[in-house]
């Protein structure tokens, strides 16, 4: 299944898109992602979003045609790299700062990842949008932090632990709710970096 599969009336889907202000469009995107977090992807309906945003269901179908397309658009609208700009001049401190920054939004994004976990296995467009919105920007920024550390001579380019740092950082965010029943906050992630990531890189 992909996001091209229709789940709304063909007559509505065929109607040309009407114009929305950026603010109104973002209101729709925020509403659908909030409902995904709170209720799970399968429970979200176009009717429910229409009710929560005080619009007609036909307005949503004119814009996005199907629920998967709507959620994909909402995810892509929020692509941002929160770790971009971290550059203290020290790889160890950059990784601590990355942990603090990640901890500020980890609960919010982890709920979304959990809610979409099953749906993305059957929808390639949804899986790609989720990766583009939440995972890829932070992985790219983290790899840039590591690259600068290599260029400064703080760690060897061929250090075997380098390629695993992104998996360590983002894996623990997903794992902690399962293992401990709690989300990975700033304090926890900084302790994780100091106890697991920095020693693996030979840093203190």
TrEMBL record:
GO function terms (MF aspect): DNA-binding transcription factor activity; transcription cis-regulatory region binding
Stretches the record annotates as Disordered: 1-21
Residues in the DNA-binding region annotation: 45-64
Sequence ranges assigned to domain HTH tetR-type in this UniProt record: 22-82
SUPFAM superfamilies, sorted: Homeodomain-like, Tetracyclin repressor-like, C-terminal domain
Keyword annotations of the record: DNA-binding, Transcription, Transcription regulation
Protein's UniProt name: TetR/AcrR family transcriptional regulator
Organism for this UniProt entry: Streptomyces asoensis
Phylogenetic placement of the source organism: Bacteria, Bacillati, Actinomycetota, Actinomycetes, Kitasatosporales
């Amino acid at each position: 299944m992909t996001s091209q599969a229709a789940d709304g009336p063909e007559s509505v889907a065929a109607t040309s898109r009407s114009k929305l202000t950026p603010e109104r469009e973002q209101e729709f995107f925020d509403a659908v992602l909030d409902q995904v977090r709170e209720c799970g992807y399968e429970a979200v309906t176009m009717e429910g979003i229409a009710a929560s945003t005080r619009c007609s269901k036909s307005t949503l179908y004119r814009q996005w045609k199907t629920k998967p397309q709507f959620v994909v658009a909402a995810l892509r609208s929020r692509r941002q790299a929160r770790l971009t700009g971290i550059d203290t001049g020290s790889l160890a401190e950059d990784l601590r700062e990355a942990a603090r920054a990640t901890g500020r939004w980890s609960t919010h994004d982890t709920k979304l990842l959990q809610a979409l976990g099953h749906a993305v296995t059957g929808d390639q467009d949804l899986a790609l949008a989720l990766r583009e919105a939440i995972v890829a920007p932070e992985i790219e920024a983290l790899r840039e932090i590591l690259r600068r550390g290599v260029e400064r001579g703080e760690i060897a380019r061929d250090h075997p632990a380098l390629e695993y740092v992104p998996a360590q950082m983002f894996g623990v965010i997903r794992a902690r709710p399962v293992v401990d029943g709690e989300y990975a906050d700033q304090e926890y992630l900084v302790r994780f970096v100091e106890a697991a990531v920095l020693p693996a890189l030979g840093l203190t």
